[in-house]
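request received
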Amino acid sequence: MMNCKATEKLLALYAGDDLPARQARRVALHLDSCPKCEKLAGEFGASVALSRSNAAPEFDSNFFDELRRDVLTQITPQPQTPFATFLAHRFAPRRMNYVYGLALICASSLFASYIYFNQLHHTRVPQNVRISIAETLQSTSDIDDSHDLHTAITPKRVGKRRTTTAKASQQVRQIRILTAGSNGIYITPRTIDSESLLVEDLTAMRATKEITLSETVASATVTDDSNSEDRTNNTASVESAVTSAEMLRIEIQTPDPNLRIIWLSPKTENAPPMKTGAHGS
Amino acid sequence: MTSIALINDEASPHDSADERRELFASLVERVKRGDTPAFEQIMTFTERSVMRTAWRMLGTREDARDASQETFLRAYKYLHRFNSRQDFSAWLYRITINVCLDIRRKQEKRNERLAPLDDADALEDVRHGHDEEEAAIQRQHEAILLQALETLTTKERAAIVLRDFENLPTEEVARILGSRPATVRSQISAARQKIKTYCDCFLRRTGRNRTSREEIKRRR
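response:
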Protein backbone atom coordinates (compact mmCIF):
# COMPACT_ATOMS: atom_id res chain seq x y z
CA MET A 1 0.00 0.00 0.00
CA MET A 2 1.24 3.48 -0.86
CA ASN A 3 2.14 5.98 1.80
CA CYS A 4 1.04 9.63 1.87
CA LYS A 5 4.29 11.00 0.48
CA ALA A 6 4.22 8.79 -2.59
CA THR A 7 0.52 9.45 -3.09
CA GLU A 8 0.87 13.22 -2.92
CA LYS A 9 3.36 13.12 -5.80
CA LEU A 10 0.82 11.36 -7.98
CA LEU A 11 -2.26 13.34 -7.05
CA ALA A 12 -1.79 15.97 -9.76
CA LEU A 13 -1.77 13.31 -12.43
CA TYR A 14 -4.51 11.29 -10.70
CA ALA A 15 -6.81 14.31 -10.69
CA GLY A 16 -6.36 14.74 -14.44
CA ASP A 17 -6.75 11.02 -15.16
CA ASP A 18 -3.20 10.79 -16.43
CA LEU A 19 -2.07 7.79 -14.39
CA PRO A 20 -1.94 4.25 -15.72
CA ALA A 21 -4.85 2.17 -14.42
CA ARG A 22 -2.76 0.14 -12.00
CA GLN A 23 -1.22 3.20 -10.37
CA ALA A 24 -4.59 4.95 -10.25
CA ARG A 25 -6.06 1.96 -8.39
CA ARG A 26 -3.27 2.08 -5.83
CA VAL A 27 -3.80 5.80 -5.28
CA ALA A 28 -7.56 5.27 -4.93
CA LEU A 29 -6.92 2.54 -2.38
CA HIS A 30 -4.80 4.91 -0.34
CA LEU A 31 -7.37 7.71 -0.58
CA ASP A 32 -10.02 5.39 0.87
CA SER A 33 -8.06 5.18 4.07
CA CYS A 34 -6.49 8.66 4.26
CA PRO A 35 -8.79 11.68 4.68
CA LYS A 36 -5.88 14.12 4.42
CA CYS A 37 -4.84 12.85 1.00
CA GLU A 38 -8.46 12.63 -0.06
CA LYS A 39 -8.90 16.32 0.73
CA LEU A 40 -5.78 17.14 -1.27
CA ALA A 41 -7.05 15.02 -4.17
CA GLY A 42 -10.29 16.98 -4.06
CA GLU A 43 -8.39 20.26 -4.32
CA PHE A 44 -6.40 19.01 -7.28
CA GLY A 45 -9.60 17.79 -8.87
CA ALA A 46 -11.17 21.21 -8.45
CA SER A 47 -8.17 22.90 -9.98
CA VAL A 48 -8.15 20.60 -12.99
CA ALA A 49 -11.91 20.92 -13.36
CA LEU A 50 -11.57 24.68 -13.36
CA SER A 51 -9.03 24.52 -16.15
CA ARG A 52 -11.04 22.10 -18.22
CA SER A 53 -14.37 23.72 -17.68
CA ASN A 54 -13.00 27.14 -18.40
CA ALA A 55 -14.82 28.12 -21.53
CA ALA A 56 -12.61 29.25 -24.32
CA PRO A 57 -12.84 32.94 -25.01
CA GLU A 58 -15.19 33.61 -27.84
CA PHE A 59 -14.30 36.07 -30.54
CA ASP A 60 -16.89 37.40 -32.90
CA SER A 61 -16.96 36.52 -36.56
CA ASN A 62 -15.74 39.97 -37.60
CA PHE A 63 -12.53 39.31 -35.73
CA PHE A 64 -11.90 36.12 -37.69
CA ASP A 65 -13.00 37.70 -40.97
CA GLU A 66 -10.38 40.35 -40.48
CA LEU A 67 -7.76 37.78 -39.53
CA ARG A 68 -8.53 35.72 -42.62
CA ARG A 69 -8.44 38.78 -44.84
CA ASP A 70 -5.03 39.81 -43.49
CA VAL A 71 -3.58 36.36 -44.05
CA LEU A 72 -5.03 36.02 -47.54
CA THR A 73 -3.75 39.45 -48.51
CA GLN A 74 -0.26 38.37 -47.63
CA ILE A 75 -0.37 35.00 -49.38
CA THR A 76 -2.18 36.10 -52.53
CA PRO A 77 0.22 37.29 -55.22
CA GLN A 78 -0.43 40.93 -56.06
CA PRO A 79 -0.95 41.94 -59.71
CA GLN A 80 1.94 44.08 -60.89
CA THR A 81 2.27 46.80 -63.50
CA PRO A 82 4.29 45.90 -66.62
CA PHE A 83 7.15 48.12 -65.46
CA ALA A 84 7.22 46.50 -62.02
CA THR A 85 7.12 43.09 -63.67
CA PHE A 86 10.02 44.07 -65.91
CA LEU A 87 12.02 45.33 -62.92
CA ALA A 88 11.24 42.25 -60.88
CA HIS A 89 12.26 40.03 -63.76
CA ARG A 90 15.32 42.07 -64.63
CA PHE A 91 16.63 42.30 -61.09
CA ALA A 92 15.39 39.01 -59.76
CA PRO A 93 17.63 37.78 -56.95
CA ARG A 94 18.62 34.63 -58.82
CA ARG A 95 19.64 36.59 -61.91
CA MET A 96 21.49 39.13 -59.82
CA ASN A 97 23.61 36.38 -58.35
CA TYR A 98 25.26 35.88 -61.73
CA VAL A 99 25.73 39.62 -62.19
CA TYR A 100 27.29 39.97 -58.77
CA GLY A 101 29.51 36.97 -59.41
CA LEU A 102 30.66 38.35 -62.75
CA ALA A 103 31.34 41.76 -61.24
CA LEU A 104 33.34 40.14 -58.46
CA ILE A 105 35.47 38.18 -60.94
CA CYS A 106 36.13 41.32 -63.02
CA ALA A 107 37.08 43.33 -59.95
CA SER A 108 39.40 40.57 -58.75
CA SER A 109 41.08 40.36 -62.19
CA LEU A 110 41.59 44.12 -62.35
CA PHE A 111 43.06 44.16 -58.87
CA ALA A 112 45.40 41.27 -59.65
CA SER A 113 46.54 42.99 -62.89
CA TYR A 114 47.17 46.23 -61.06
CA ILE A 115 49.27 44.47 -58.43
CA TYR A 116 51.22 42.53 -61.08
CA PHE A 117 52.13 45.53 -63.22
CA ASN A 118 52.88 47.60 -60.17
CA GLN A 119 55.36 44.98 -59.03
CA LEU A 120 56.86 44.81 -62.52
CA HIS A 121 57.64 48.51 -62.77
CA HIS A 122 58.78 49.15 -59.25
CA THR A 123 61.88 47.25 -58.31
CA ARG A 124 61.78 46.83 -54.63
CA VAL A 125 64.88 47.11 -52.51
CA PRO A 126 65.86 43.63 -51.48
CA GLN A 127 65.58 43.33 -47.76
CA ASN A 128 68.10 40.59 -47.50
CA VAL A 129 70.46 39.50 -50.25
CA ARG A 130 72.33 36.36 -49.55
CA ILE A 131 74.85 35.02 -51.98
CA SER A 132 76.22 31.60 -51.41
CA ILE A 133 79.25 30.58 -53.33
CA ALA A 134 78.47 26.98 -52.56
CA GLU A 135 75.32 27.27 -54.67
CA THR A 136 77.21 28.99 -57.47
CA LEU A 137 79.80 26.28 -57.52
CA GLN A 138 77.21 23.59 -57.94
CA SER A 139 76.20 25.14 -61.25
CA THR A 140 79.76 25.80 -62.35
CA SER A 141 81.47 22.49 -62.67
CA ASP A 142 84.82 23.80 -63.91
CA ILE A 143 85.55 25.85 -60.79
CA ASP A 144 87.40 24.30 -57.94
CA ASP A 145 85.14 23.31 -55.09
CA SER A 146 87.55 24.54 -52.43
CA HIS A 147 86.10 28.08 -52.12
CA ASP A 148 84.05 28.23 -48.99
CA LEU A 149 82.67 31.73 -49.17
CA HIS A 150 79.45 32.95 -47.60
CA THR A 151 78.45 36.54 -47.91
CA ALA A 152 75.39 38.45 -46.92
CA ILE A 153 74.65 41.96 -48.01
CA THR A 154 71.77 43.35 -46.05
CA PRO A 155 70.35 46.78 -46.74
CA LYS A 156 68.17 47.86 -43.86
CA ARG A 157 66.58 50.97 -42.53
CA VAL A 158 67.08 52.11 -38.95
CA GLY A 159 65.03 55.24 -38.45
CA LYS A 160 65.96 57.49 -41.35
CA ARG A 161 69.32 55.88 -41.86
CA ARG A 162 69.79 53.32 -44.54
CA THR A 163 72.80 51.16 -44.10
CA THR A 164 74.22 48.32 -46.09
CA THR A 165 76.18 45.70 -44.28
CA ALA A 166 78.36 43.33 -46.20
CA LYS A 167 79.44 40.28 -44.27
CA ALA A 168 81.97 37.95 -45.70
CA SER A 169 83.88 34.95 -44.50
CA GLN A 170 87.67 34.49 -44.41
CA GLN A 171 87.89 33.61 -48.03
CA VAL A 172 87.18 37.16 -49.15
CA ARG A 173 90.18 38.58 -50.76
CA GLN A 174 88.93 42.05 -51.49
CA ILE A 175 85.77 44.08 -51.15
CA ARG A 176 85.31 46.93 -53.54
CA ILE A 177 82.69 49.60 -53.23
CA LEU A 178 81.85 51.48 -56.38
CA THR A 179 79.68 54.53 -56.63
CA ALA A 180 78.71 56.62 -59.60
CA GLY A 181 81.41 59.15 -60.36
CA SER A 182 84.20 57.33 -58.59
CA ASN A 183 86.31 54.30 -58.97
CA GLY A 184 85.28 53.11 -55.54
CA ILE A 185 86.92 52.13 -52.31
CA TYR A 186 89.17 49.17 -52.05
CA ILE A 187 89.16 47.39 -48.76
CA THR A 188 91.35 44.42 -48.25
CA PRO A 189 90.76 42.67 -44.95
CA ARG A 190 93.95 41.04 -43.86
CA THR A 191 92.54 39.37 -40.84
CA ILE A 192 91.41 35.84 -41.21
CA ASP A 193 88.38 36.16 -38.93
CA SER A 194 84.97 36.93 -40.30
CA GLU A 195 84.63 40.65 -40.74
CA SER A 196 81.77 43.01 -41.09
CA LEU A 197 81.91 45.98 -43.36
CA LEU A 198 79.41 48.78 -42.83
CA VAL A 199 78.73 50.87 -45.86
CA GLU A 200 76.24 53.68 -45.84
CA ASP A 201 73.90 53.76 -48.76
CA LEU A 202 75.31 56.76 -50.46
CA THR A 203 72.13 57.58 -52.34
CA ALA A 204 70.09 57.80 -49.20
CA MET A 205 72.88 59.51 -47.37
CA ARG A 206 73.00 62.32 -49.85
CA ALA A 207 69.26 62.74 -49.72
CA THR A 208 68.97 62.90 -46.00
CA LYS A 209 72.44 64.31 -45.19
CA GLU A 210 72.19 62.70 -41.80
CA ILE A 211 75.20 60.51 -41.98
CA THR A 212 78.50 62.26 -42.04
CA LEU A 213 81.38 61.17 -44.13
CA SER A 214 83.54 60.65 -41.09
CA GLU A 215 81.15 58.02 -39.78
CA THR A 216 81.31 56.16 -43.02
CA VAL A 217 85.05 56.29 -43.03
CA ALA A 218 85.19 55.30 -39.40
CA SER A 219 83.00 52.33 -40.14
CA ALA A 220 85.12 51.36 -43.03
CA THR A 221 88.20 51.87 -40.97
CA VAL A 222 87.12 49.45 -38.34
CA THR A 223 87.09 46.60 -40.75
CA ASP A 224 89.85 47.80 -42.95
CA ASP A 225 93.14 46.61 -41.64
CA SER A 226 95.25 48.52 -44.16
CA ASN A 227 97.82 51.17 -43.21
CA SER A 228 97.15 54.83 -42.61
CA GLU A 229 98.12 55.82 -46.13
CA ASP A 230 95.48 53.49 -47.53
CA ARG A 231 92.98 54.92 -45.11
CA THR A 232 93.62 58.39 -46.52
CA ASN A 233 93.03 57.09 -49.99
CA ASN A 234 89.84 55.47 -48.86
CA THR A 235 88.66 58.71 -47.35
CA ALA A 236 89.30 60.58 -50.59
CA SER A 237 87.41 58.01 -52.56
CA VAL A 238 84.44 58.12 -50.29
CA GLU A 239 84.31 61.91 -50.43
CA SER A 240 84.25 61.74 -54.14
CA ALA A 241 81.52 59.17 -54.03
CA VAL A 242 79.35 61.16 -51.70
CA THR A 243 79.32 64.20 -53.91
CA SER A 244 78.32 62.41 -57.04
CA ALA A 245 76.91 59.13 -55.95
CA GLU A 246 73.59 58.02 -57.30
CA MET A 247 74.27 54.37 -57.14
CA LEU A 248 76.09 51.89 -55.01
CA ARG A 249 77.86 48.83 -56.20
CA ILE A 250 79.65 46.35 -54.00
CA GLU A 251 81.99 43.80 -55.43
CA ILE A 252 83.39 40.98 -53.39
CA GLN A 253 86.35 39.24 -54.93
CA THR A 254 86.95 35.67 -53.93
CA PRO A 255 90.36 34.01 -54.07
CA ASP A 256 89.32 32.50 -57.32
CA PRO A 257 90.00 35.20 -59.91
CA ASN A 258 87.09 33.99 -61.96
CA LEU A 259 84.59 34.43 -59.15
CA ARG A 260 83.36 37.83 -58.05
CA ILE A 261 80.14 38.60 -56.23
CA ILE A 262 78.51 41.85 -57.31
CA TRP A 263 75.66 43.55 -55.52
CA LEU A 264 73.94 46.55 -57.04
CA SER A 265 71.77 49.01 -55.19
CA PRO A 266 68.42 49.81 -56.82
CA LYS A 267 68.61 52.16 -59.76
CA THR A 268 67.42 55.67 -59.30
CA GLU A 269 65.93 57.70 -62.07
CA ASN A 270 68.26 59.97 -64.05
CA ALA A 271 71.27 58.36 -62.49
CA PRO A 272 74.55 59.00 -64.33
CA PRO A 273 76.24 55.97 -65.80
CA MET A 274 78.40 54.00 -63.42
CA LYS A 275 82.08 54.40 -63.90
CA THR A 276 83.62 51.02 -64.03
CA GLY A 277 87.16 51.78 -63.21
CA ALA A 278 90.01 49.38 -62.89
CA HIS A 279 89.75 46.95 -60.09
CA GLY A 280 92.47 45.04 -58.44
CA SER A 281 91.95 41.36 -58.34
CA MET B 1 -2.99 8.05 -34.54
CA THR B 2 -5.44 9.68 -32.20
CA SER B 3 -7.56 12.22 -33.93
CA ILE B 4 -7.57 15.76 -32.67
CA ALA B 5 -10.72 17.81 -32.76
CA LEU B 6 -9.08 20.95 -33.99
CA ILE B 7 -11.88 21.59 -36.46
CA ASN B 8 -14.60 23.86 -35.25
CA ASP B 9 -17.74 21.91 -34.58
CA GLU B 10 -20.00 24.49 -36.10
CA ALA B 11 -17.79 24.94 -39.13
CA SER B 12 -17.52 21.36 -40.20
CA PRO B 13 -20.17 18.79 -40.77
CA HIS B 14 -17.55 16.03 -40.71
CA ASP B 15 -17.58 13.97 -37.55
CA SER B 16 -15.35 10.99 -37.94
CA ALA B 17 -11.60 11.32 -37.65
CA ASP B 18 -11.03 9.67 -41.02
CA GLU B 19 -13.40 12.03 -42.76
CA ARG B 20 -11.67 15.00 -41.18
CA ARG B 21 -8.31 13.72 -42.25
CA GLU B 22 -9.53 13.16 -45.78
CA LEU B 23 -11.08 16.58 -45.84
CA PHE B 24 -7.83 18.24 -44.79
CA ALA B 25 -5.77 16.09 -47.14
CA SER B 26 -7.90 17.15 -50.10
CA LEU B 27 -7.81 20.79 -49.05
CA VAL B 28 -4.05 20.71 -48.65
CA GLU B 29 -3.66 19.16 -52.08
CA ARG B 30 -5.78 21.91 -53.56
CA VAL B 31 -3.71 24.58 -51.83
CA LYS B 32 -0.53 22.97 -53.12
CA ARG B 33 -1.94 23.30 -56.62
CA GLY B 34 -2.41 27.03 -56.04
CA ASP B 35 -6.01 27.10 -54.92
CA THR B 36 -5.97 29.92 -52.37
CA PRO B 37 -9.70 29.69 -51.46
CA ALA B 38 -8.98 26.16 -50.21
CA PHE B 39 -6.57 27.65 -47.71
CA GLU B 40 -9.28 30.06 -46.63
CA GLN B 41 -11.44 27.03 -45.99
CA ILE B 42 -8.71 25.47 -43.87
CA MET B 43 -8.48 28.69 -41.91
CA THR B 44 -12.22 28.74 -41.33
CA PHE B 45 -12.08 25.23 -39.91
CA THR B 46 -9.13 25.81 -37.62
CA GLU B 47 -8.94 29.50 -36.75
CA ARG B 48 -10.82 29.27 -33.46
CA SER B 49 -8.67 26.51 -32.07
CA VAL B 50 -5.51 28.25 -33.18
CA MET B 51 -6.65 31.51 -31.66
CA ARG B 52 -7.72 29.80 -28.43
CA THR B 53 -4.38 28.01 -28.04
CA ALA B 54 -2.44 31.16 -28.83
CA TRP B 55 -4.48 33.13 -26.31
CA ARG B 56 -3.79 30.53 -23.61
CA MET B 57 -0.12 30.54 -24.45
CA LEU B 58 0.34 34.27 -24.65
CA GLY B 59 -2.38 35.70 -22.42
CA THR B 60 -3.36 38.73 -24.47
CA ARG B 61 -5.75 39.15 -27.34
CA GLU B 62 -3.36 41.17 -29.50
CA ASP B 63 -0.51 38.71 -29.10
CA ALA B 64 -2.86 35.82 -29.80
CA ARG B 65 -4.06 37.50 -32.98
CA ASP B 66 -0.49 38.10 -34.14
CA ALA B 67 0.38 34.52 -33.32
CA SER B 68 -2.65 33.19 -35.22
CA GLN B 69 -1.79 35.25 -38.26
CA GLU B 70 1.82 34.12 -38.17
CA THR B 71 0.71 30.52 -37.67
CA PHE B 72 -1.38 30.54 -40.84
CA LEU B 73 1.30 32.32 -42.82
CA ARG B 74 3.86 29.78 -41.69
CA ALA B 75 1.47 26.92 -42.40
CA TYR B 76 0.94 28.22 -45.92
CA LYS B 77 4.65 28.67 -46.47
CA TYR B 78 5.54 25.15 -45.33
CA LEU B 79 2.46 23.37 -46.60
CA HIS B 80 4.54 21.62 -49.26
CA ARG B 81 6.34 19.80 -46.42
CA PHE B 82 3.11 18.46 -44.99
CA ASN B 83 2.57 14.79 -45.61
CA SER B 84 -1.05 13.85 -46.25
CA ARG B 85 -0.70 10.82 -43.99
CA GLN B 86 0.04 13.12 -41.07
CA ASP B 87 -2.63 14.55 -38.83
CA PHE B 88 -3.11 18.10 -40.04
CA SER B 89 -4.45 19.26 -36.69
CA ALA B 90 -1.38 18.03 -34.84
CA TRP B 91 0.82 19.66 -37.46
CA LEU B 92 -0.99 22.98 -37.06
CA TYR B 93 -0.89 22.73 -33.26
CA ARG B 94 2.87 22.28 -33.47
CA ILE B 95 3.20 25.38 -35.62
CA THR B 96 0.96 27.34 -33.24
CA ILE B 97 2.99 26.33 -30.19
CA ASN B 98 6.28 27.14 -31.95
CA VAL B 99 5.03 30.55 -33.06
CA CYS B 100 3.84 31.30 -29.53
CA LEU B 101 7.19 30.25 -28.07
CA ASP B 102 8.97 32.50 -30.58
CA ILE B 103 6.78 35.45 -29.64
CA ARG B 104 7.32 34.83 -25.94
CA ARG B 105 11.07 34.61 -26.44
CA LYS B 106 11.08 37.91 -28.32
CA GLN B 107 8.97 39.57 -25.67
CA GLU B 108 11.15 38.29 -22.87
CA LYS B 109 14.20 39.54 -24.72
CA ARG B 110 12.61 42.96 -25.02
CA ASN B 111 11.13 42.64 -21.51
CA GLU B 112 7.67 43.68 -22.67
CA ARG B 113 5.40 40.94 -21.31
CA LEU B 114 1.99 42.33 -20.40
CA ALA B 115 0.09 41.30 -17.30
CA PRO B 116 -2.67 38.97 -18.53
CA LEU B 117 -5.18 40.43 -16.09
CA ASP B 118 -5.15 43.64 -18.11
CA ASP B 119 -6.58 41.74 -21.02
CA ALA B 120 -9.49 40.11 -19.22
CA ASP B 121 -11.72 43.10 -19.82
CA ALA B 122 -11.17 42.84 -23.54
CA LEU B 123 -13.21 39.64 -23.55
CA GLU B 124 -16.26 41.27 -22.11
CA ASP B 125 -17.64 42.61 -25.31
CA VAL B 126 -17.22 39.39 -27.24
CA ARG B 127 -18.74 36.98 -24.79
CA HIS B 128 -22.30 35.94 -25.24
CA GLY B 129 -24.66 33.31 -23.93
CA HIS B 130 -24.14 34.12 -20.22
CA ASP B 131 -25.98 36.36 -17.89
CA GLU B 132 -24.08 39.24 -16.38
CA GLU B 133 -23.16 37.62 -13.07
CA GLU B 134 -22.06 34.37 -14.61
CA ALA B 135 -20.03 36.21 -17.20
CA ALA B 136 -18.31 38.19 -14.45
CA ILE B 137 -17.40 35.00 -12.57
CA GLN B 138 -16.18 33.43 -15.78
CA ARG B 139 -14.00 36.43 -16.53
CA GLN B 140 -12.60 36.24 -13.05
CA HIS B 141 -11.76 32.56 -13.49
CA GLU B 142 -10.06 33.26 -16.76
CA ALA B 143 -8.03 36.04 -15.27
CA ILE B 144 -6.94 33.84 -12.36
CA LEU B 145 -6.07 30.98 -14.68
CA LEU B 146 -4.14 33.23 -17.03
CA GLN B 147 -2.17 34.59 -14.12
CA ALA B 148 -1.55 31.07 -12.90
CA LEU B 149 -0.31 30.12 -16.37
CA GLU B 150 2.16 32.98 -16.19
CA THR B 151 3.88 31.24 -13.28
CA LEU B 152 4.74 28.23 -15.47
CA THR B 153 7.73 27.67 -17.64
CA THR B 154 7.10 27.77 -21.37
CA LYS B 155 7.28 23.98 -21.72
CA GLU B 156 4.98 23.41 -18.76
CA ARG B 157 2.60 25.96 -20.17
CA ALA B 158 2.53 24.39 -23.60
CA ALA B 159 1.96 20.94 -22.08
CA ILE B 160 -0.86 22.03 -19.77
CA VAL B 161 -2.56 24.16 -22.41
CA LEU B 162 -2.71 21.25 -24.82
CA ARG B 163 -3.65 18.68 -22.16
CA ASP B 164 -6.10 20.49 -19.89
CA PHE B 165 -7.35 23.40 -21.97
CA GLU B 166 -7.43 21.70 -25.36
CA ASN B 167 -8.18 18.27 -23.86
CA LEU B 168 -5.66 16.40 -25.96
CA PRO B 169 -4.38 12.99 -24.83
CA THR B 170 -0.94 12.98 -23.24
CA GLU B 171 0.56 10.93 -26.07
CA GLU B 172 -0.65 13.43 -28.63
CA VAL B 173 0.70 16.32 -26.56
CA ALA B 174 4.05 14.55 -26.43
CA ARG B 175 4.00 14.11 -30.20
CA ILE B 176 3.17 17.76 -30.80
CA LEU B 177 5.85 18.99 -28.42
CA GLY B 178 8.41 16.50 -29.64
CA SER B 179 8.91 15.03 -26.17
CA ARG B 180 8.43 11.67 -24.51
CA PRO B 181 5.07 11.01 -22.81
CA ALA B 182 6.85 10.57 -19.46
CA THR B 183 8.45 14.00 -19.82
CA VAL B 184 5.11 15.55 -20.71
CA ARG B 185 3.46 13.86 -17.69
CA SER B 186 6.15 15.32 -15.47
CA GLN B 187 5.59 18.78 -16.96
CA ILE B 188 1.83 18.44 -16.59
CA SER B 189 2.19 17.36 -12.97
CA ALA B 190 4.45 20.32 -12.15
CA ALA B 191 2.10 22.70 -13.96
CA ARG B 192 -0.96 21.42 -12.08
CA GLN B 193 0.82 21.81 -8.77
CA LYS B 194 1.67 25.42 -9.58
CA ILE B 195 -1.80 26.22 -10.86
CA LYS B 196 -3.37 24.67 -7.76
CA THR B 197 -1.11 26.65 -5.49
CA TYR B 198 -1.99 29.84 -7.32
CA CYS B 199 -5.70 29.12 -7.48
CA ASP B 200 -6.09 27.84 -3.92
CA CYS B 201 -6.81 31.23 -2.49
CA PHE B 202 -9.44 31.95 -5.12
CA LEU B 203 -11.02 28.51 -4.91
CA ARG B 204 -11.33 28.70 -1.14
CA ARG B 205 -13.10 32.02 -1.45
CA THR B 206 -15.64 30.71 -3.97
CA GLY B 207 -16.04 27.35 -2.18
CA ARG B 208 -15.20 25.31 -5.27
CA ASN B 209 -12.29 23.45 -3.78
CA ARG B 210 -14.32 20.42 -2.90
CA THR B 211 -14.47 18.05 -5.81
CA SER B 212 -15.36 14.65 -4.58
CA ARG B 213 -13.55 11.52 -5.61
CA GLU B 214 -16.83 10.34 -7.05
CA GLU B 215 -16.64 13.21 -9.52
CA ILE B 216 -13.11 12.23 -10.51
CA LYS B 217 -14.18 8.62 -10.84
CA ARG B 218 -17.13 9.69 -12.92
CA ARG B 219 -14.81 11.59 -15.26
CA ARG B 220 -12.64 8.53 -15.63
